[in-house]
Amino acid sequence: MDNKLCLDVADLPMELRLLLKIIKEDNSGIQLEHVDEAADIDWNLFLDLSMHHRIYPSIYPKLKMLDVKWIPENVMNILGQQYKRNTFHMLHLSAEMEKISQLFSDSKMRLLNLKGPVLASDLYGDLSLRTCGDLDVLVPIQDLDRADQLLLNEGYVKDDYIQTILGDWKWRHHHVTYYHSQKQIKIEIHWRLNPGPGKEPRFDELWERKRRSSLTNSPVYYLGREDLFLFLVSHGARHGWSRLRWLTDIDKILKQKIDWDQLKKILRKYQYYHLGGQALFLSSQLLNSKLAEESKSLVSGHRPKRLAQEAIFYFEEMVNLHTIPVPTNVAVYHKRHLFSLMSLPQKISFILSTLYPFPQDAETLPLPKSIHFLYFPLRPILCIWRKMRKQELRRRIS
């Protein structure tokens, strides 16, 4: 890629730069024995970053094979322990994934695995080379009640964290979580790929293009390659690419045979073309991923680089969006970044969606369900009222 298009990564910590060199060694032929800055590495931070970015399973076997002498023995031992623990966890998840898929199939319900062991197998060729915290599956929205009952019968407990009013859960949210305390497995049941508002492929479309995993004996289905690319891109972008694991997924899928004509049609149709460009730009710049000639139109223009540069903030700050509360400066930046990721139609849809009642409106002014429609005209007043109350509380505290 043209050097004029290089990202500004001057503020990335040295330890993260080393991790990037290790990851992209396959793509660039870098000789790790000649990394000069090794003596100055903060190895505790190196380990923290390896865990934070969830890339320790892929770097450990590489470092062990290369027999790099300048990495302290205790660092290699910790990486090795985590690698083994992850391998057992992935095998555990794989068995449960196959069981759940079979249960849904026996109940005549369609189920698509979004991530998990099938992703590790498809992209990395080995379960042990990728981490996965839980199982993410997609079902048709009309099957949610049946899916709920099926999981409850299996001993899973639903986390009823979603607050909703006037059916906004169907598009404001995109999954619900279940947890099995004995198996210590979490399953997220999705009815959308991403939270709305926004266009995305219907379940029937995804089902038509599905693939069957070779990982298991009984049928386990997951997304077609182009649909998987769209999902990985939208998911990574929505989280600011704050974990390198999501970017290494992009690097791996770029090495597979992609139907770029079909993919670009899908990205355009659902207004993710610019996010595809952001992902390719980041992957090519940070991991030295090779871009197919047919893909280079995605990174043309100023916007892919600008969005990619915005994502560097998440690497510099070691952002973890899943740790609550998120620091104020990160929350403010992330809110602005998410808006910048939207296409113009998506921005319009998002702004209009703020006029739709929120659960907080019902908390501010409880009304009988039969007249909940009044929250539409009342919403501006209720918003002003909440802001006035917050300002009054601040005055009292100060």
Commentary on this structure:
InterPro entries: NTP_transf_5 (IPR039498). This is Nucleotidyltransferase family protein. The chain is α+β, with helices and mostly antiparallel strands. It has a domain at about 355-395. Helices cover about 55% and strands about 5% of the residues. It contains 18 helices and 7 strands. It has a 5-stranded mixed beta sheet with strand order 1-2-5-4-3. The chain has a two-stranded antiparallel ribbon with strand order 6-7. Strand 6 (about 210) and strand 7 (about 220) form a beta hairpin. Helix 10 runs antiparallel to helix 11, helix 10 packs across helix 12 (about 260-270) and helix 10 packs across helix 13 (about 275-285). The radius of gyration is 23 Å and the shape is globular. The mean pLDDT is about 90.
Question: How many H/I helical runs?
Answer: 18
Give the beta-strand count. 7
Largest sheet: 5 strands, mixed
Instruction: Name the helicity range.
Output: 40-55%
Distance between the termini: 53 Å
Which strand order do you get reading across the main beta sheet? 1-2-5-4-3
Order of helices and strands: HHHHHEHEHEHEEHEEHHHHHHHHH
Radius of gyration: 23 Å
Provide the structure class.
Answer: alpha+beta
Principal-axis shape equals: globular
Overall mean pLDDT stands at: 92
Uncertain stretches of 5 or more adjacent residues: none
Pfam families: NTP_transf_5
InterPro entries: NTP_transf_5
Protein name: Nucleotidyltransferase family protein
